[in-house]
Amino acid sequence: MVFRTVIFLCLLNLFAFSVQKIEVYAKDFYLDEKNETSVLTGNVEVKKGNDVLNSQKLVIYMKDKQPIKYIATKDAKFKIIMKDKTYHGSGDEFIYNVAKDTYEINGNAKITEMQTKKELIGDKIIVDRKNMTYRVVSKDKKPAKFVFEVKE
Q1: Does Cell inner membrane appear among the keywords (predicted)?
Q2: Which helix (H) or strand (E) holds 8?
């Protein structure tokens, strides 16, 4: 009876605290265990659930062997799904903060909501997935741009 209880509790913990798998692909991979960083180059692809990040270079920062931040550069593009909506984005630099669940796109930042074709364009876009907020920042007196269609 005790054995069954222990097995049940182990299975319960397995399902209650399920870990989402992250898959990373690249042509070249370098790991520095001492500094807890990984550098991936060449056709980099990261998959987490339905979210996908592509770039030519990706640096992963870790703490206690867990990723805390991803910085993608060189042709950074992504696809994320939030609240049943699919977003495609691109920029010069893409930063994902794991703890905050935020995406930051720097330089030539663009996000398109695929279902409605709404677009956000600016020098910097910050997406907060937890709070479902978006911030677009532009510099050099260029305006931030929001493109959408209105039914008449």
Answers
A1: no
A2: helix 2-16
